[in-house]
Amino acid sequence: MSDPIDEFSFLPDQAADAGLEGPLPRGERVNLALPSGRTLSALRWTPDGSASAPVVTFLHGAGLNAHTWDTTVLALGLPALAIDLPGHGDSSWRDDAAYVGRVLAPDVAAGMDAWTDRAQLLVGQSLGGLTAAAVAASRPDLVRELVVVDITPGVDPSAGPSQIREFFAGPTDWASRDELVDRALAFGLGGGTRRKAERGVFFNSRVRPDGRVEWKHHFAHLAAAAASTPGAPDAPPAESASTPDAVSAVLGDAGWEDLAAWAAPTTLVRGARGYVTEADAAEFVRRNPEATVTTLASGHNVQEDAPIELAAMLRGLAGND
Questions:
Q1: 274-306: per-residue pLDDT in tens?
Q2: 242 belongs to a structural domain
Q3: Rounded CA gap, 268 and 102, in Å?
Q4: pLDDT digits (tens, 9 = 90+) for 201-214
């Protein structure tokens, strides 16, 4: 697997794979220096010939990065912002390893303050969905409408989410990206084809000076440390999302409290083969009676399995159907 010219070189192939025609949007990498000394990074997308500010902001799940939304953005056709959550992609790792929604929300809000000029259709998948709920609860001025993708605070952490923990609880460095692609496909991840898995692995990994390949995101390193040395002094703290107890904490009552504090329109999108069961969705609506639930034919990563359908739904919510 060879490296592309730049991080946007995959776009023509992605558009072709999805059957999308027409001009490609312009993508640019933007970075924000945070008061803590860390950096928040994101991708800002504008349709061809447009200078419009984003109207949709995307937050990815644990172990992913902003590029997971690429095909959805291509199909959306609207100005958009996709943020690398702290500890993921090109955003700095947190020294406290606290990767939960309420901790990540202030950084996301800072990015939205810097890179948007109006209330957003805020779309978050998995950990990004819980973070989006925390942003909506704490900074409602930034959010016009909330879309939570295949996650609820009540999801059983020993069910679907355990797959992610097991996937990353392995070696932290590899001889080549091809080895990472093989591992992703073995776990049924990566989008279903080797070419899609190669794109995902490229965006989610980096080559170290010694030639070894490692995951970019902190989550994998924390998960591996917790699996190999449980209880060790350098194991991640309880606030991180890398241990069974921490996963339970991430999916706990704080998320329900954030959703209850948000009074504007909310949509839950569940993948038919994803983590959110029909019972989870029913509980979501019981707690949020005005919420709408949409089910798409996909797994947990709806934005990769059903990007065209997801984009069509989001375009309608944004008032551009």
A1: 999 999 999 999 999 999 999 999 999 999 999
A2: no
A3: 19
A4: 888 888 888 888 88
Rounded Cα distance between 303 and 36, Å, is: 31
Biggest CA pair distance of the chain: 54
150 catalytic? Reply is: yes
Torsion sign, CA atoms 292, 293, 297, 301: positive
Which of 60, 91, 300, 305 does the annotation list as catalytic?
300
In what side-by-side order are the strands of the sheet with 266-271?
26-33, 39-46, 80-84, 56-59, 120-125, 143-149, 266-271, 292-296
Q: Does residue 87 lie within any of the structural domains?
A: yes
Residue with tokens 């609880």: 169
88 counts as catalytic: no
142, 274 in Cβ contact below 8 A?
no
Percent of the chain residues topping a pLDDT of 70: 83
Domain that holds residue 122: 11-156+253-317
Q: For residue 5, give every residue at least 6 positions away whose Cβ sits within 8 Å of its Cβ, in sequence order, or none.
A: none
Domain total for the chain? 1
CATH number of the domain residue 258 falls in: 3.40.50.1820
Tokens 């069509």 correspond to 312
Reduced to 3 states (helix: H, G, I; strand: E, B; else coil), residue 266 is: strand
165 in a domain, yes or no? Answer: no
Q: Catalytic one among 126, 205, 242, 298?
A: 126
What value, to the nearest 5°, has the Cα angle with vertex 316 and ends 85 and 147? Answer: 30
Q: Specify whether 6 is catalytic.
A: no
The pLDDT mean for the chain works out to: 86
Nearest to 31 by CA among 117, 107, 91: 91
DSSP secondary structure string for all residues of 196-227: HHHHHHHHHEEE-TTS-EEESSHHHHHHHHHH
Report whether 157 contacts 144 (CB < 8 A). Answer: no
What pLDDT band is residue 251 in, cutting at 50, 70 and 90? low
Quote the pLDDT of residue 234: 40
